[in-house]
Amino acid sequence: MSDEDLMEKFQSGYEEAFNLLVERYQDRLHNFLYRYTHDHQDCEDLVQETFFRVFRSRHSYERIAKFSTWMYTIAINLAKSLYKKKKRMTKVTIHKDPDDSEDRPMKLEDSGILPDDSLHEKMCMDQLEKALEELSDDFREVVILRDIQQLSYEEISEIADLPMGTVKSRINRGRAQLQELLESYVYPETISA
Asked: What is the pLDDT of residues 93-130, one digit of tens each?
């Protein structure tokens, strides 16, 4: 049964359909939002808030749009609001204060020992996360939607409220920047043309 069919059932009062939608999208939505927040607790809150808004606004959904597009739009708007709110908050650093002679840098060590493959995969993901953070918000948003969430160009155009040409251009430019940022890290033989 399609997402849109489930949403119609939910709109007609069958609440089990909502539970199925949550089951389908909970993990994907969490992964998607993590790339914005880099904080699992914030992600949990945003996922819950997204599903709460889907539940509350179920009657405003119209089948002319894909359910996933509608839901990701809600999630992105919530993530952007959180980002703006956090930008206004004071940040505390864990780095050494150069003005304090008694301050020492804090060392954060991972005591767990990982097998080589897991460690390599983790390091690759860390590099990718860092590279994504270096992209501008405009590029990062569309690259995540396309390459990580695997949404269509049409869906991204609707979610980001951008013309199709702009979406394609931003994805291409974002990918080019990512390739540049990761070039020194990736083995030369794995870089695709």
From this structure: 555 556 666 666 555 555 555 566 666 677 777 788 88
| Measured distance CA(169)–CA(174) in Å, rounded | 8
Using CA atoms, how far apart are residues 22 and 33, in angstroms rounded to an integer? 15
For residues 188 and 102, the answer to whether their CB atoms sit within 8 Å is no
What is the rounded CA–CA span in Å between residue 76 and residue 155?
A: 13
Whether this prediction's pTM lies above 0.70 is answered by no
Give the integer Cα–Cα distance in Å for 151 and 120: 28
Residues 132, 181: Cα–Cα separation, whole Å? 9
pLDDT per residue as tens digits for the range 130-170: 888 888 888 988 888 888 888 889 888 888 889 999 999 99
Q: Are 126 and 111 in contact (CB under 8 A)?
A: no
Q: Is 176 exposed, middle or buried (0-12, 13-18, 19+ CB in 10 A)?
A: exposed
Instruction: Report phi then psi at 27, rounded to 5.
Output: -70, -40
Residue owning tokens 């980001």: 160
Q: To which residue do tokens 């939505």 refer?
A: 29
